[in-house]
Design a protein that fits this description.
Number of strands: 12
Shape: globular
Distance between the termini: 35 Å
Low-confidence stretches: none
Helix content: 25-40%
Largest sheet: 7 strands, mixed
Length: 236
């Protein structure tokens, strides 16, 4: 991976902003991802993210922390938070912005090597995305489960993107022989460079609930957004 995401974050933080990230998927057209949005403060976060931060407690792990917005807010509130991201550039930005504890690794690698336990694990901005595909979901859930304290919680958001397959008559053009409709190929470009495509997963709540039960986790809906999105709490 070229870590174009990390490069873009560093450019913005260092005052070298000239253009935004461009993203698209195998079922959607190119769209701008404003770098300013990736540095938003609490009042500019979606309500689901605000709800997740208000529900956070104890020792906390912020998975896929990006520029560290959620971690910084919680750190300022006195919460002991560790920001984790596989992007080297993102973690550099987190450190420059004042985050005390960071980890530059994937969640699976981290779960295999650490003995630490957390009271809250955050996975926001479509937290299920890192699961990659439906058949890998159990692998990630089991890894996250090992990182929880006895009364710990996982706060995760996602969206049911079935609406993206709706036709003009209100029907759906889903291919029943294809993979789960929330499995997407995600593409990103920055300053005329293209990143290698990655697998990205959107999970509807019922499918997440079923996957959690299979892993010995309870799954509770905490809040619903205005556009098929939701925030869930997972716990043992």
């Amino acid at each position: 991976m070229k870590d174009l995401f990390g490069k873009a974050l560093l450019d913005y933080h260092n005052g070298n902003y000239t253009e935004d990230l461009i993203t698209w998927t195998n079922i959607s057209e190119e769209d701008k991802l404003p770098l300013a949005y990736l540095f938003r403060d609490f009042k500019n976060m979606p309500l689901l993210e605000q709800k997740a931060l208000h529900s956070s407690k104890g020792q906390l792990l912020d998975v896929g922390c990006g520029a560290g917005n959620h971690s910084l807010y919680l750190q300022h509130k006195g919460i002991d938070v560790t920001a984790l991201d596989s992007s080297k550039g993102a973690i550099e930005v987190c450190k420059k912005r004042g985050l005390i504890k960071t980890e530059n690794t994937s969640i699976l690698e981290f779960a295999e090597t650490t003995t630490k336990k957390y009271d809250t694990i955050l996975l926001l901005m479509n937290g299920t995305g890192i699961f990659e595909s439906l058949d890998k979901t159990s692998i990630y859930l089991e890894a996250l489960k090992t990182l929880l304290t006895k009364n710990g919680q996982i706060l995760i958001d996602s969206s049911d993107i079935k609406y993206m397959y709706e036709d003009e008559d209100g029907g759906y053009w889903l291919d029943m022989n294809a993979n789960y409709y929330g499995e997407l190929d995600y593409f990103l470009s920055y300053k005329k460079e293209k990143e290698l495509p990655m697998k990205w997963l959107y999970l509807d709540f019922n499918t997440l609930h079923t996957a959690c039960l299979a892993c010995g986790l309870k799954c509770e809906m905490l809040a619903q957004g205005e556009h098929y999105d939701y925030l869930a709490k997972l716990y043992v």
